[in-house]
Structure formats: C-alpha cells, structure tokens
Amino acid sequence: MKINEVPQDDVPDYSEGIKKGNYALDDKGKYVMVPSKGWVIDEMINRMAYDEYREKEEETRQAVLAGKKSPLAYYMELRQMTPEILGKTAGIAAFRVKRHLRPEIFAKLKPSVLEAYVKALAITSEELQTVPQNPRER
Amino acid sequence: MTTELITQETLANGRTYIHRTSAHCETGVTTALFRDKGLDISEPMIFGIGSGIFFGHLPFIKQTGLPISTFRSIPGLVFKKAAQRLGVKVFRERFRSPQKGMDELRRVIRTGQIVAVTTNIYWLSFFPRRYRFNFSGHNFVVLYENENGFRISDPALLEYTTDCSAFDMERARFARGPMEPRGLMYYPISVNPNPDIRKACITGMTDSCKQMLGIPIPLFGVKGMRYVAKKILIWPEKLGYVEACRQLAHILRLQEEMGTGGAGFRYIFAAFLQEAGELFGSKELNELSNEMTAIGDVWREFAVVSSRIIKNRKSKSEETFEKAGGLMLICAGREEELFKNLRDVIGKLKT
Q1: Mean pLDDT of B181-186
Q2: How many interchain CB pairs under 8 A, A with B?
Q3: Where are the domains of chain B?
Q4: Averaged over B137-148, what is the pLDDT?
C-alpha cells in the first residue's frame, strides 16, 4: 500500500475524529506510518457488530416492558455481558443469574443480591427496578 | 474529551514524556516504555523482534458469540519476547485484589515510572462509543495522577494524551470475562543500553517462521489460513448467506478494524523486514519485504471483496464467497513461500 492508497474516508460518526495508524510506502519505497481518517469498510463492519448489540438490547427492553424478562436482563445486555460474565463480576453463580432474569424471581430478590448487581453493572438501585420507556439514543 | 492536543507531558519526577502515535496498542506501548528508558526502537522493529506476526483460528474462544481468527500472537507476548531478546528486565504482575492493584499502580507512577496496563475497552469512556466492545486486551500507558484520575497516553488510538477516571481505570483493569486482564501492569525496570539488535532480529524472525510454519495443529500459522479459507467456501451453504456474512465481517474486524496497521499486521511486518534489511545490508530481506507488501495488498483485496459481499447481503452480490476464500488461499500459499524463504535467508545473515 502506498501513502496515497491509505483510506481517508469521512466517517465522523464512527471515528469521532480519531485517526488510526497505517503503514504505507512513500515515494522512495520506504515504510512510514500514515494516520488514516477512516475507512468505509471499517465503518461498515463496526456498524454491523454495534447494531447487533443494539438490536439485542432493544429486544430485551421490549421483553422487560412486556413482563417477560426482568430489568436485570436489559442492563446485562446494555453492559455487553452474558450471565457468566455478570455472575463473575457480581460474585453470583451463573445459574442463579440466569434464574434472576425471570421477572417473578427477580421481584423476590434480597437487597444484598440487588446491591451486588447494582455495583457490577455500575447503575443505581432505582435504575435496576425498571427499564427506560424509550429506546436508548444511539 | 480534551480539545487541546497535548503530546508532551511532565512526569511525577520531572522527566519529560513525549507521546507518539502508533498503529497497534501493544507494540506502541512497548515502544513507548522502552523509549522512556532510553532505548529508541521503532514500532515495526519491536513487532518483528517480539515475533508478533501470526495467524490462528480459535473456535473455542468466542467474541460476540463468534470464533476469533487472530492475525497476531497472544496479547502480552510481543512485550515479553521483545524485552527478553533485547535484554530488558521487566516488572509484570497481575493482582487478585483490585484495591492492591490500584494502590500499586499509584505507588509506581508517583516515582515517575510510567506503567502500561491491560484493560477492557468497554469501560474506557475516553474511547469513541462505537469502539467500546467488551474486549479485554487493550494496552495503554499511565503517566501520572491528576484531579480527574489518571493522565494516560494511548499510542494506538489517540494522537495526544488524555485523562482516564479512577473508576474507569479500575473497572477496565479488573473486568471479568474472557481473557481477564486481572489488573495486569508492566514496565521495564532496566534496559541494556547497547543491545545486540541483530541477534534479537534473527531470534525474532526464526521464531516467526516457526509460528507460521511449524505448529503441528491445523488451526495455526499458514495451515490455519487454509483451514479458514476452506471454511469460507462452504459457509454460505452451511450457515446460510446472512450468517456467513456475519462471520466474514468478524474476520475483517480482526484483520482491519482493530488497529493492525493495515492488512492484519502484514504491512507492519513488511516494514520490519525493510528495516532489518537495512540493518543487515541484506538485499534478500528487502525483497522479502516487497513480497510481504504484495501479500498485504492481497489481504486488502480480500477485505474489499468481502465487504462487497457483506454490503449486498440482502441482494446477493456479484462477488462470491469462492472469490474471497480463494484470495485467502493465495495469501496462505504466498506466505508459506515467504516464510520458507525467510528461513533460508536467516541462515546466511551474520550477527
């Protein structure tokens, strides 16, 4: 790749002005580091992965509002966690976390357990009781 | 986010630290740490000496539910190997207790020693939001404490230094899940001021050849590339078109998006071969560098073709999975040839 082949695409929403280093050849055939503004291909594949999380998160939010899942499920998705990761973070066995994703079991949780989740998810206790009424912006 | 772009910082003991941008986080951090100790070696050199180039398919480690195809060696290994081969004594430790890990970090930076930490990107709020995935394996350098928490230098991502809150730092360093960093922090204690760079290069290149050609498991090195290429060919039938696109996009993310200097570290390795060629005065190494660049261009083409497939995943595109897989097979064949040639060239080099 030559310097003029380093992609310099405008993808401000993705890169937020941050440049990435690429190695490319200058006129004399010597390698130099060239900052790249962005590449549409990077942007596209990043968006695919990003949207996938967002869709899962939104689906879970709807399910919580419909009473099918506990708010814990939503915040777990929000933090890109699985029951295993959340369990390790909160110090609660994964099989128990999975049970707590059911609203009827979540409703009966002890304050100490809720406190562990609040800390693990970095949210407030009030937040953990409910989910936002509207989809999260971006 | 800071608006003024600062690239020069004064450390706790009054020394000056200069921030430089790099292509990849671990090599960039290693370069910065060594330079701080007076050992000025370029990023591609560190990458080559630390034998960073690799290919591996890891179906048993999942990231966002998808198997990882990695283009470099295990995180942390480049620093370890480069330090060993250049005669650098290092401190490298993980912590069981976050409290102890944070105390130790604070204690060390107070002495003016800069420290590299391994972190989980999700918890770093100075990152652009779309970069923030649950991935534990990002490295940056901590410079000193300030009123916002810590002043840090992230060579791979930013062109300037920035702040990281103490909360972010602790969560990111002690995030749980796959590849837990467990508060890993590392820094050189002392460096050898006149290391035998030629010998280090030869060790690094020999090791790279072994990694690419000699691992008797079909998931690693050139064999791994063939394995993945053949998988790509059958994905559309086996997984369905949309899911196949999802998997292909995941390969591209690891190849291009995650700070690799382009073409999954192939260009940075070509830069290393070029620099080594100058160091040894070896024409052969220079020719191998040109070949590595050409292979990098094929990887780039693979990325472009794959992206066209993915882009038109709803209405099947003119580009096919056969073409993408075929390009990867070409890469595998040419890299096999290149590393075999490199092995022969190393034998002729003088230390």
Answers
A1: 90
A2: 118
A3: 8-40+89-190, 197-348
A4: 88
